[in-house]
Amino acid sequence: MKIVFLGDSITDMGRDRTADLTAFSYGASYVYLITAKLAKENPGKFEIYNRGVSGDRIVDAYARIKKDVWNLKPDVLSIFIGINDVLHEVLAGNGVDIIRYENVYRTLIKETLERLPNVKIVLMAPYVYDGSLTEENREAFNAVADYAKVVEQLAGEFGLMFIPVQKKLDEYVNKYGADKFSYDGVHPDLAGSMVIAEAWLEKTKDVLNG
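The chain above was modelled as a monomer; its predicted structure follows.
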């Protein structure tokens, strides 16, 4: 079973782009944790590719969808993108407004299903917390919640699997504090990546065991 993870720096996390299907190709990410668990429990069953690119917005992911997804012909596609569509706007005026975000995201899904009609797709909603990257413009970052709602709506529209990442992290953040799960309010540390990995594995278990 072939799995592709499409995303931004939360998925990328310093992966080695020259070494697919090795430990280094998964970065210090939730993808690494997922891959390690699946490899241990099902040796040889899964072929997993990390296609996270730091800084990507939805328009960037769409621009490379053919090379990084369609050409690989995955059985499962996981998409985790959205924080940079807000962050780039707040920090540099180069974000993607929510209407364009929804339109491009919908087009990405629609065209992917046209080319890969049997692919199973997982949509992961963006999240944000207080931290060094968000503290100066915290109110502006509240828009991330609206982008997360768009992802949920698209999952419902196309009948896709959906993971409310903020909600999953909140179960721990509300008890222990955001700084224990994200080192800057945007990127997860190891504990945060583990929460994301466990949520992903739980949501996809029926597909993975099929």
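The chain has a mean pLDDT of 97.
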